[in-house]
Amino acid sequence: MPFLRALPLLIAVMTSALGVPTPVAAQPAPSTSASVAVPGFWDPKRRPERPDLSRFSVLRFITEVDYPPFNYAGPDGNPVGFNVDLARAICEEMRIACTVQMRRFDTLLDSLAENRGDAAIASIAVNEETRKRADFSEPYYRPAARFVARKEAAIPVVKPELLEGKKIAVVAGTAHEQYLRALFTEADIRPLPSAAEAREALRKGEVDLVFGDGFALAFWLNGTEASDCCAFAGGPFTESRYFGEGIGIAVRRGNETLRQALNWALFRLWEKGRFTDLWLRHFPINPY
């Protein structure tokens, strides 16, 4: 997916190399379950002021068509998913009407620039390229890379020295492959053309682990294709140089009023626990 892969601060890289995952959140999550940790990027000491919302009568959200569980078409053809539910919760918090329309991912930022939508909520990574085309809210989650192993060969702690000689499937040409080659230099890295092929190689026992996007892997582990074969190994890797600065809601360049309003609404949803409720509903297996 474009924009969703970005490029570790040296300290962060060395931290993960020693087997200690970089913290996912700026602040501890307000709540967790036994299987899901909820990210929280909001500092309660930096409470944003409530903006003037009188100019808003309706907020036109746009999202993409096929990126489950974040956004996709439901059985009736209407948009559903975590991003969609979050958009509607934002509108409820702001007490304004809300519409959510689906568009191709590669058209979203152009649609904002052409005033065919007010805000794009579609797991768009905040990076140098996207900042040239839109302004963004504060991040509401961050991409995380994860290892997955077969359950009978569980690896509770992931360190480079513990994976020496281990066969690791990864999608060729990705930031995940770059990360493995930089940090896990003694592993037997097996680049494959697609994420589906990497996961299938693990399911069949052809490799010892797969390394990739934690959200996609969580979705796979929770589905039928995995056949309950596997589980996450070790903790998340979130180094911004490799895996991105974070995911924000995009608005038209210069629309500071809406950007600040979104920041306020996101903070309020997190503070009230509604963000946590949405997260736990959509991510029964912990991507982090």
List the helices and strands and how they pair.
Elements: H1 10-17, E1 58-64, E2 66-67, E3 71-73, E4 79-80, H2 82-94, E5 97-103, H3 108-113, E6 119-125, H4 128-131, E7 135-136, E8 145-150, E9 167-171, H5 175-183, E10 188-192, H6 195-203, E11 209-213, H7 214-221, E12 230-237, H8 240-243, E13 247-251, H9 256-272, H10 274-282
Helix pairs in contact: 2-9, 2-10
- Roughly what is the average pLDDT, rounded to an integer? 86
CATH superfamily of the largest domain: Periplasmic binding protein-like II
Low-pLDDT runs: 1-35
Count of alpha/pi helices = 10
Order of helices and strands: HEEEEHEHEHEEEHEHEHEHEHH
Word description of this protein:
The protein has 288 residues and is of the alpha/beta class. It has 2 domains: 25-142 and 245-282, Periplasmic binding protein-like II (D-Maltodextrin-Binding Protein, domain 2); 145-237, D-Maltodextrin-Binding Protein, domain 2 (3-Layer(aba) Sandwich), CATH 3.40.190.10. The chain is built from 10 helices and 13 strands. It has helices at residues 10-17, 82-94, 108-113, 128-131, 175-183, 195-203, 214-221, 240-243, 256-272, 274-282; strands spanning 58-64, 66-67, 71-73, 79-80, 97-103, 119-125, 135-136, 145-150, 167-171, 188-192, 209-213, 230-237, 247-251. The chain has a 5-stranded mixed beta sheet. Helix 2 crosses helix 9 (256-272) and helix 2 runs antiparallel to helix 10. The longest helix has 17 residues, at 256-272. The two termini are 20 Å apart.
